[in-house]
Amino acid sequence: xxxxxxVFLSILSSISVxxxxxxxxxxxxxNKLVKTKYxxxxxxxxxxxxxxxxxxxxxxxxxxxxxxxxxNYDEDYYKKTEAEFQISFALPLARNIFNLKWDFMVAYxxxxxxxxxxxxWSKPFRETNYTPEMFTRHVYSTSQEMSGIxxxxxxxxxxxxxNGQIQILSRSWNRxxxxxxxxxxxxxxxxxxWYRLPEKRSEDDNPxxxxxxxxGQIELIKSFGSHMVHxxxxxxxxxxxxxxxxxxxxxxxxxxxxxxxxxYGHSLIEYDRPxxxxxxxxxxxxxxSNKSE
Length: 293
Known about the structure:
Blueprint: H1 2-14, H2 26-34, E1 41-42, E2 47-54, H3 63-68, E3 81-94, E4 103-114, E5 125-146, E6 149-162, E7 172-184, E8 187-196, H4 209-213, E9 216-224, E10 227-235, E11 243-251, E12 254-263, E13 275-284
Antiparallel strand pairs: 1-3, 2-3, 2-13, 3-4, 4-5, 5-6, 6-7, 7-8, 8-9, 9-10, 10-11, 11-12, 12-13
């Protein structure tokens, strides 16, 4: 895996046809936003995909719901075509806590999968993942460089993730985590590691979730002029589960958005089942967006 990651970084660095001579300045973008008290910062991506095609929907997950409604029993609850959206923001509550140049933040991510084309089942939201978190963030005034890799910021926090369901459909877990914001040449690299807080086995909805979600995540973000590519995958997972995003400016603050996902762990309800999804829509700018032309 280390060799594959090295090759991938080398490829991104060497592409010159579309490559920009500049890279988004994380510190500058962050400091501009936090000057305003109680401003909502970009956190994870905020996007809307009105069209998503899934090659492998798992109808069996929702059999208990189908058994309740005999009228639509023969209709698929989980059709291959649906919509997907995510709203994600962070709110700085305190700056420079204890005079240590760390900011205290709370954040929330709302990720939903919407069967908007499924008329027989009244177009339900088949799955929603709720992710509140709180963390401290330190953004270095001068990047800490080692072997060509610059450390720009660090997050340390706690996150809860749940799909809000009960009984057989319920999924949730709680973690403490650390995340490093790195930069290698013109590539932003986010490396996260986490530890799941133990639960009573009798109450654990997903005891093997580490096997699919891993012990962390790596994200690679690279701009090629106005084009942006975002690749992520779990770390130390038993499965290869890539998530590839591409975006291009649409208007001020908005970008066209293409999403491809394969493997496991892309939603809680299907964390242990392989999926393959392709979606098209729009996304908001992030802290890593290169505003220069």
